[in-house]
Amino acid sequence: MNxxxxxxxxxxxxxxxxxxxxxxxxxxxxxxxxxxxxxxQGISVEESIAPQPVRSGDETVTLRLADxxxxxxxxxxxxxxxxxxxxxxxxxxxxAVETTPGSYRTPLTFTMGGDWVVLAHITLADGRRIxxxxxxxxxxxR
Amino acid sequence: MTKAPxxxxxxxxxxxxxxxxxxxxARPFDLLDVPVxxxxxxxxxxxxxxxxPLLAVSIVMIVQGLFGPTLSPKNLATVLTWVHxxxxxxxxxxxxxxxxxxxxxxxxxxNGMRRWVRPRFAWxxxxxxxxxxxxxxxxxxxxxxxxxxxxxxxxTAWVIVGYFAAALIVDGLFTHATFCKYVCPIGQFNFIxxxxxxxxxxxxxxxxxxxxxxxxxxxxxxSASSQLVVLQRGxxxxxxxxxxxxxxxxxxxxxxxxxxxHDNVGILSRLPAGELMSDPPRSGIGRFSRxxxxxxxxxxxxxxxxxxxxxxxxxVYAVEGWLERMLHVNNQATALGILFTVVIxxxxxxxxxxxSWITRAWAGVKSxxxxxxxxxxxxxxxLGFGMWLAHYGFHFLTxxxxxxxxxxxxxxxxxxxxxxxxxxxxxxxxxTVVEPIEFGFLLLGLTGSLLVAWRLAQDxxxxxxxxxxxxxxxxxxxxxxxxxxxxxxxxxxRATMMAG
Lengths: 142, 500
Known about the structure:
heterodimer, A: alpha+beta, four-stranded antiparallel sheet, 23% helix, elongated, B: mainly alpha, two-stranded antiparallel ribbon, 3% strand
C-alpha cells in the first residue's frame, strides 16, 4: 500500500517536472520570438539588387545610406555577406565600393538557386556599426 | 564466464551467400574482440556513456535553436541536425551499424523517467506493426518540405523537443521499447538502412544457446531476492538472440550483450544486405514476406529518398507551379501533398504492381501479385539507402567544417570567445570531390539491390530466374537513373512556406 502510494507520488513529481520543463522551454521560445529589432541609429539603409529577377550567377547589390536628414552617409565600410537558407553552404563575402557619396555597390555571384539571406555589415566613418539583413527569395537556377 | 568462440551466427548461415559447411574456418570479425572497445562496450553503462554527450548536444541544440541566431547556417540546431547529424548517421550505418540508436539521447531521458514512472499499458495488439511509423516517416518528410525545417532553427529546436516529449509520453504509458519499435520515424529509417550494414548484434556460437536454460538475452536478469528488481534488462524489442536474424528492429542497445551469461553475443561482421537475400523466420518480426507493413516501410524508405532529394532541386518548383495552375489551387500544401501522394504512394504501387505482374506471368511464379511485390520490395532498400547516402553525404561532406565557425560564433555570442572569431570561410570538401563519392554511393546501392533481387529470383523460379529477376532489375535501373538525374540537377533550396 505504502509502496504504491510512494510510486504514485513519484509519478506525480515526475509529471510535474516534465510539465515545468516544457513550460520553461515554451516561455523561452515566446520570449525569443519577441526579440526587439536593432535600432536604426538614425541611419536609413536602402538596398537593391539587379538585374531582376535574381538568378544564380552574377548580380549587383547596391546600398544607399542616408542619415535622419536624408543626407548621404559617405565613407562607410560596407561588407556584404550572402547565406543560403540551408545550413552547410558556403557564404559569400564581398566588400562594397562607394560609387557616389552614400551609394555603395558590389558584385555578388549567387552560386545556386533558392532562398538567400543577404547581410550588410556597415561600419560608419565614426566607428558606429550597423547590421542589416534582407531575404532574396526564389533565386532562379540558370 | 568464458567467451564463446566466434563462429557464424544464425543469420549469417541463413542470410544468404555464406555456407557454414563449405567454409568451416570462416570466422566473422567481432567488434567486441577489438582491444579497448571490448571493455568499453562490454561495460554495463556503455550505452549511457555514449548517450550523455548526445543528450548534452541535444540540449545545446534546443537552446541555440530557440535563443540563438535566427539565420539557419549560423545556428547549431540547424547545422548539427540537417548537416552533421544526418550525414554522420548514414555514414555510420554504412561503415558499421545502427550507432545512432545505440547512443540515442531520447532513450537516456526515457530511462531516467522510468526510474520514477512505471508504464502500465501494453501497446495495442492492432498497432504492433510498422504502419504508424511508416506514416510518421512520410509526415516528417512532408513537414520538412512544407515548413522548410532546414531553414528554421526555431522549428528545428521544436522538432527535437517534440521527439523528447513523444518518447517520454509513449514510453511513459506503454511497456518495453514501444517508442523505438512502433513509433520512432528515425528508428525505422535506421532499421531499414541498417539491413545494409556490415555489422550485426548476433550470437557468436549457436550451439551455446542450445544449451542455455536462462534466456537472459530476452528476459533479462533479476535479483534472486526479489523478482521485481531488474539487474540487467533483456531485449526490449522482443528479439530473442538465437532466433534473431539481421538488423531489423535492433537498436544496438547491447542489453543482450550484457545479459548473456555465456558472453555469447557479439557485434559480428556479415555480408551487407545479405539478410534481405533470404526469408527466414525472424525473432520479433516473423518472415519479411508476410510483413506487408515492413515492406511498405522499405518502399517509403526508397521512394522517400527520391522525394526528399527532389524537393531540393529546381524542377520541383516547376512541377508544383504546374500542379497549382492545373488544379486551380493557390496552396503549396495541397500541391506538395499531391506530389507526395504521387511519388510515395501511386508511383510505387504502379511500378511494383507492374513488376510483380510481369514476374508472375513471365517467370511462372505461383504467388499472388501482392505477395510478390512484398517479397521484392525489400530489394529496393539498398538503392534507397544509396540515395540517402548520396544526399545526406553531400550535405555532410560539402558542409563538413561549418560546425567550426558556428561553434565559434555560439561561444562568442555568450560573451566567451574562447575559440576565436568565427571563420565563416570554412565550409567543406569541394563539390568536384564530393560528386564522384555521391555516384559511388548510388552505384553501391544499385549493386546491392540488383544482388538481392537476383537472389530472390533464384529462389522463386529455379527454371527462369532471369525472367523473375528482369522486371525488378529494370525497376532498380529506372530508379537509379532517376537518382542519378536528380543528382545532376542544379540545387535550389527554398523554404516553400516562407517563400509564400
